[in-house]
Amino acid sequence: MLEWYRHSQRYAIGMGVAAFFVIGILISLRQGLDFAWLTVWWMWIFLFVAALGMYGIFRLVDPAAGADWLKIGRTWVLLYELTDIKVRHRGASMHLDLKDSGGRSVQVRVDELQEDRDLWDLVYNGLAHSVIVNGATTNHAAHSLLEVPEQPE
After folding, report:
1. Exposed, middle or buried by CB within 10 Å (0-12, 13-18, 19+), for 107?
2. Are 17 and 56 in the same domain?
3. Could you list the residue ranges that cross the membrane (predicted)?
């Protein structure tokens, strides 16, 4: 493994606390700014579980890359043997969907790869090589948003 990235525990805790307060504010707004819901004991459990879930989401992602592979969780692809490169919008974030010649595929949020510059460099080099040399299929978003080069004519 040459590079890997994981959100810090401090960041994950911060996102959990932020989720706790944002959900609490949204519930208050839904109730017409009536804070009587705070006296309901199970609402506190709901808020705590939601915050814990958000913490888990931010600690769960752990992309890793080697000289020619990318691993997301338990799935991995060979970066220099990609056959399909797609960038898709899911919710408010961009996701990179990759498939290699062995039929393996991974899906990952682009910002989780780009937060570590060295990790992104390894992935981008594999994307560019797969398009230029192997003729991997891409979509317009891969070229316009990630600046992956076009296939040579």
Report:
1. middle
2. yes
3. 12-29, 41-61
Shortest CA distance to 71 belongs to which of 109, 41, 105, 102? 105
153 residues of the chain, pLDDT tens digit each? 556 566 667 877 888 899 899 988 888 888 888 888 888 889 899 999 999 888 887 777 678 888 899 998 889 999 999 999 999 998 888 999 999 999 999 999 898 888 888 889 999 999 999 999 999 999 999 999 999 888 777
- CA dist 30 and 62 (Å) reads 35
Exposure on the CB side of residue 38, measured as CA atoms within 13 A: 11
Are 74 and 119 in a shared domain? yes
Regarding whether 86 and 54 lie in a shared domain, the answer is no
Q: 27 and 79 in one domain? A: no
Residues 77 and 138 grouped into a single domain? yes
Q: Are residues 47 and 72 in the same domain?
A: no
CA distance 121 to 31: 48
Q: How far apart are CA 123 and CA 152, in angstroms?
A: 20
pTM over 0.85: no
